[in-house]
Amino acid sequence: QSTLTQPPSASGSLGQSVTISCTGTSSDVGGYNYVSWYQQHPGKAPKVMIYEVNKRPSGVPDRFSGSRSGSTASLTVSGLQSEDEADYYCSSYADNNHVVFGGGTTLTVL
Amino acid sequence: QVQLQESGPGLVKPSETLSLTCTVSGYSINTYYWSWIRQSPGKGLECIGYISHSGNTNYNPSLKSRVTISSDTSKNQFSLKLTSVTAADTAVYYCARLSAAAFDPWGQGTLVTVST
User: Fold this and answer.
1) Of B58, B102, B107, which is closest to A36 when you measure between CB atoms?
2) Which of A8, A83, B57, B89 could form a disulfide with B85 if both were Cys (CB 3.0 to 4.6 A apart)?
3) By three-state DSSP, how is residue A82 classified?
4) Backbone Cα Rg of chain A
5) How would you classify the pairing of strands B110-114 and B102-106?
6) How many CB atoms lie within 10 A of CB A33?
7) B106 and A45 in contact by Cβ < 8 A?
């Protein structure tokens, strides 16, 4: 199964917004309403930030939002804070009941 | 709240079988799906597979011939076996609950090194 495509890196200044993309196909991102986003700090387990394309778990700041257009999903982080600096991964439900991940994006807060 | 904890050997010899157990507390594994994910050093995440509350399994096609995920509801645990390991299987292995195709929560992860 193929991984989803993410840019290796992204950056933004404190207080600004940044958007990370996650490109798949009609067999995954474009075909199901099950795209998730995870934040991972060094040495820690990933934490879900967005599920079902645009839903936020309780406790996740509303600065984090998700969207999708066709087979590309996006994570937007608004009002960047220093603690947002981390790796971000997308995942999607896919054909044959599989779940696939993106390669990850390192977000740097300038 | 739901907590997951991986356990098992941190060192496995090449060609042998990697075996890990995930102990779940605060929630019964008789509902939802329960999964294994790994992350090779400095690399991204890879879903190894998952098991349903009824015992149905789904595996990553690239690992399917070597993977078995099973559960023991009496102990509220589920397990991973990966046979014929090589250095490429060296990774941090996580267990996680899977719901609506989202992994949450995750265990803290355990590093398994394949080496002589």
Assistant:
1) B102
2) B89
3) helix
4) 13
5) unpaired
6) 14
7) yes
Verify whether the Cβ–Cβ distance A98 to B94 is below 8 Å.
no
Cβ atoms A89, A106 nearer than 8 A: no
Residue A1 pLDDT exceeds 70: no
How far apart are alpha carbons A54 and A89 in whole angstroms?
15
- Per-residue pLDDT at B9 exceeds 60: yes
Distance from CA of A35 to the nearest CA of B (A): 8
- The rounded distance, in Å, linking the Cα atoms of A72 and A6 is 10
Strand A98-101 vs strand A86-94: parallel, antiparallel, or unpaired?
A: antiparallel
Q: What are phi and psi of A71, to 5 degrees?
A: -100, 20
CA angle B44, A78, A19 (to 5 degrees): 45
- pLDDT tens figures, A42-85: 999 999 999 999 999 999 999 999 999 999 999 999 999 999 99
Amino acid at A25: T
Give A56's Cβ-side CA count (13 Å radius).
Answer: 12
Helix (H) and strand (E) counts in chain B: 0, 11
| Chain B residues whose C-beta sits inside 8 Å of any chain A C-beta | 35, 44-47, 50, 58, 60-62, 94, 98, 100-104, 106-109
Of A51, A100, A103, the CB nearest to B100: A51
Contact A40, A89 (CB under 8 A): yes
**Can you tell me whether residue B41 is helix, strand or coil?**
coil
CB half-sphere exposure, A73, CA atoms < 13 A: 33
Q: Is A76 exposed, middle or buried (0-12, 13-18, 19+ CB in 10 A)?
A: middle
